[in-house]
Write a structure and sequence with these properties.
Shape: elongated
Distance between the termini: 84 Å
Largest sheet: 3 strands, mixed
Order of helices and strands: EEHEEHHHHEEHEH
């Protein structure tokens, strides 16, 4: 049996559309192209800045004679002191619900934050804050960098500077470890010969410091002295590991790039050239 029983025609953009329905009266096909035009964002219809009544479905067709009568009737109803109400069976009897209310389109969309002082959400008390507005742009930036790197030893006196680095290096010097230093360790000639294609690609960017291979799994750990930019260190390390695995067919478990005391690029970011 054909489930399509009734149809309904309505006008949109000057064209008639046919909506197919089932016996129960439900819409057979639901498509954005068949749905009635409604505002895409109801909250826009509340804000006076973006309100556009043309987006709403008109109550009357253009040039309808009843539109003028309806406006007069609305004015008359608004002039009455008595508001027409009804009792909702799901609410207490003493609550009268207005029968004619304006349609709710949602809250206005927030397009910006309310203006606030730039010192809000700060942990520094107001009486201890630094007045950057009173400083020149150069001095303000210089002071901001010094405050941001307050825990870095290079901003301290030279003797404190050296003592701080000696404290950091103490565990490495005490245990004589290879990782974290630029000391050269054992290098297996067979591993060097196997990774020769990758060393030609890396060129003068790195120097091989040591090799280590697990006897049980055969996994290889390689240490390099890295001369490149610090901002590329992590990416170069990952790329070198993939290069050794794919191009040289090596079972590499880890690649370590040693940079000594260098923590950033002094030529680009300032700081001490030795302890940077």
């Amino acid at each position: 049996e054909n489930p399509i029983q009734t149809t309904r025609l309505w006008q949109r953009n000057g064209q008639l559309r046919r909506i197919q329905k089932t016996k129960m009266g439900s819409k057979l096909v639901s498509s954005p192209s068949l749905d009635p035009p409604t505002p895409s964002r109801d909250s826009f219809m509340v804000d006076e800045k973006s309100r556009d009544d043309a987006m709403l479905t008109p109550q009357f067709a253009p040039d309808d004679v009843e539109e003028e009568f309806n406006e007069d009737f609305v004015k008359f109803r608004k002039s009455l002191d008595i508001m027409e109400t009804y009792v909702d069976p799901f609410l207490p009897e003493d609550i009268l619900v207005p029968r004619h209310v304006a349609k709710w389109h949602g809250y206005p969309e927030q397009t910006n934050f309310r203006p606030q002082n730039y010192t809000n959400n700060r942990f520094t008390p107001v009486e201890k804050k630094t007045d950057f507005d009173a400083l020149s742009p150069f001095r303000a930036r210089q002071l901001a960098v010094e405050m941001a790197r307050a825990q870095n030893a290079e901003w301290m006196r030279p003797e404190v500077h050296l003592a701080r680095h000696a404290e950091i290096r103490e565990p490495y010097e005490k245990c004589q470890t290879l990782v974290g230093t630029l000391r050269k360790g054992d290098v297996d000639p067979e591993i060097v010969q196997q990774m020769e294609p990758a060393l030609k690609i890396l060129g003068s960017c790195v120097d091989l410091l040591s090799t280590w291979q697990d006897e049980e799994t055969g996994g290889i750990v390689l240490r390099f002295y890295y001369y490149g930019l610090m901002k590329n260190k992590h990416g170069m390390k990952a790329w070198t590991e993939s290069l050794l695995q794919e191009e040289c067919g090596m079972n590499v478990n880890n690649v370590v790039f040693e940079t000594g005391f260098r923590r950033r690029d002094p030529a680009y970011e300032g700081g001490d050239y030795y302890y940077g």
